Structures are given as structure tokens and as C-alpha cells.
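Page header: ASSEMBLY MODEL / two components / 439 residues total.
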Amino acid sequence: MILITDLCYRKDSLSYYEYVNPICEIAEDSGSEYDVIHYSELNGEIPDKYSSVIFCGTALKDNLFIEDLSLMQAVRSYNKPVIGICAGMQVIASAYGGKITDLKKFGMSRVRFSPGDPIFCDIPDQIIRSGITDKENGNNSFSSLSSGDICQKNNSSTYVDSGRPVYEFEGYEVHSRMTELPDSFIPLAMSGVGHSSPEPSEVFRTPVSFDSEIYPEIIRHREKPVYGILFHPEVRNVWLIRNFINLSGEGEF
Amino acid sequence: MFHTPNIDLTMMQAEAAGIPLLRYETAGEKEAELEDLKAAVDLAKVKYGIEGIVTGAVMSVYQASRVQKICDELDLFCFNPLWYVNQEKYMDSLIRSGFEVIIAGVYSCPFDEKWPGRVIDMKTLAELKKIRDKYHITLTGEGGEYESFVCDAPFFKKRIVIDESSCSYRNYNGTLSITSAHMEDK
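Prediction written out in full:
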């Protein structure tokens, strides 16, 4: 059974419908049983009965959750699969010593990754069709984690070239903060650079922001199956959450 | 960005709901219109002391991200409680809980001239589902396939009755213009 953790400013908040309910719908569609618990009721510990945990996002203006030190403790001592979305990523990174920094983003962003980590076990066809090779990609290549890999990071945020294909998709970001990468974590996906135009089939015409910064969009603990996602995968990237749910259900991490 | 059909009737809807209405004019120029929206929201903050905005965004990242940005700039909470709601469950609950909603405009195949003015009841919803399955429209019209007008809601103190309307329709595009309406006690 999955635990979906509500990080909103209080239990049964108006933000619940926006940030927690869509995750519940995805879990239900995936055929997975779940419970929803507000973070204030965890009391420093994630109950053992759950096979994995999803920490949901919350309203942009809501930063109450990050003050709960017992929440960080609960995350740090938990070794089963965890995924933190936006605010959830802040919780996870903070729990492992990452600092919170300011970074504002509203709208769709380009996200680049190389497959290899279990979270990318099932990639939608339309993403694979848009794939580019590392050679075309130049400095934006980076490594992906598979069991036993050690990832090297240098100061310029360019990562070891894995030789794997690089794929791109667009992720929905709404945040005013993010976290620095904790030492025990590696990036699995990075934000893209520059302007991308919407697909012709895009119904909602969303101009992608210009972005001069490259930052991690998906992070993972080097050893534990603990993930943080900066964008909101429940918007147009449900495949990531489904992969996580399916893998944790099968004990595949 | 903005809904336009029958926009003047929001005055009647606000009166029916017993909620103050703030009106602000915009030229509706893409992206520039957001400055107008921000000014209007700021005015609401000053005049009514609002602490947040609630939108009805279901899937539109275009609308939601822009409202989120404005709320952030004005230090307001932003709520989108219909965000990625299950559209079938939502439409079903609207009808069952007593909303009376009519189709106010159609802008996509296969809607013909009979659609503007139709009440969204269970029969209409069943047809919308079939159209969704065949033509891949969104059930809630979130993609701009159709627009709607609320005549009655559980929280309305009076219901709106349409006395006169006209429709201009051509090539799967038609807008219902409500030229006369009045309110009735419930």
C-alpha cells in the first residue's frame, strides 16, 4: 500500500484538491491501494505498513511544511521507495542536508534525461521519438544512475557522459524555491537551456520560458530509491509516477 | 486567456450569488492583458482585502501558470481546486448538485447550431462523452471547445432566466448572445 502524504498548510485544506487529489487519482488508476495522511499526523515516523511514499506539492505561498523537523527525521530514517514532488522534493533534499534556495518558475520547462534509472523504466513513445544523442547534445549530457554506478560531479554542472541517448520532455513547474543537491544525491534529469516551441498538436499553447539556468529537475539518493521531482509530474507526465508506483508495488527497487 | 461570451451578465450572476463583483476593462491583447488582470486583482486586494484567488482551471497550464505568477507578485495565495479533477465525476456532480448550466458557445467540430443554448443535463452529458470519445474534445470544454453560462447554482439566492437570446453560427463556431434575462426567486 502507498502512503500519499499531504504537505498542505493544514489537513483538509483547499489546496488538497489541487495537489493531493490528482495523485490519489493516479494511484487509483494504477490499481494501487493508498492512504492519505497529513504530514502533521506522522509524528516523526512513516508507518511500516506502507511499501512506498509519495510526498505531494502544495500552494506556492505555503512554506509551513518545511518547518516541521520531525518530518525531515521521518524521511531520513525511511529506507523504502519515496518520491517527493516539488514541496516534497524540498522535504527530501532538506532531510538529507540540502539547502533551500530561491528559484521562481511558472510554466512548462524543458527537462532532459538519459534512461537507465528504474524510474525511467517505461518511457512514453512520444518522448522516445524526440530523442537526441549525446554528441548532438554537447554540454548538456549527464549520467544516469544504475545500481553500482558512482557519479562524479564537477563544478560546472556538466556530468560524466554516459553514452546513452538523451531524451526531452516538458515538465510543469510552479515554485518559488528549490533545493541544492545534497551530497548523497545525484541528478537524473536537468532543465534544458533556451527556448522550445510547442508541438503542433498542443491544444493549450504554452510558451516555454527562456531560462539561463540549468538545474536538477529529478534527483535521486545514490543508494536508496529516494527521488525528488521539481516539476509536477501529475501534469502531463503521469508516466513517472506510474513507473514509481508499479516498481514499488512489485518490489523492484 | 479570458472568457468573453455574455460577460456583462456576470453582474447578474454576482447579484444572484450575493457576492461583490469587481469589473475591469481590458483590450484583451495577448500577454498585455495580464497586466490588466494583475491590476484588477491588486484592486480587489486593496478594496476587499482578499488573501487569495481561486480559479476554475482544470488542465490549462496556460491560464494557471499566469494566474500563479500574478498571485506570487501580489503575495496572494492561489487555489485551483479543480486542477486535474476527474472530469466525468466533476460534470456528474455539477448536474446532481443542482447547477443549471447552458452551452453559451461552441468552437469545435462536431458541434452544430443546435448546441448553443442547450442545458447541460444528463442527456447532454452523455452526448458530450460520446463526442469526447470520438473527437477527443475535453469533457469540460477546457480546451476551448465550448463555453458555458451558469443560470443557477446551489449557492445562488436567485436563479437566472433567459428571456431573449440570439445565436450566430457558422462552421462549428457559434456563440449564444443573451440579450435579455431576469432573476427569479428560488
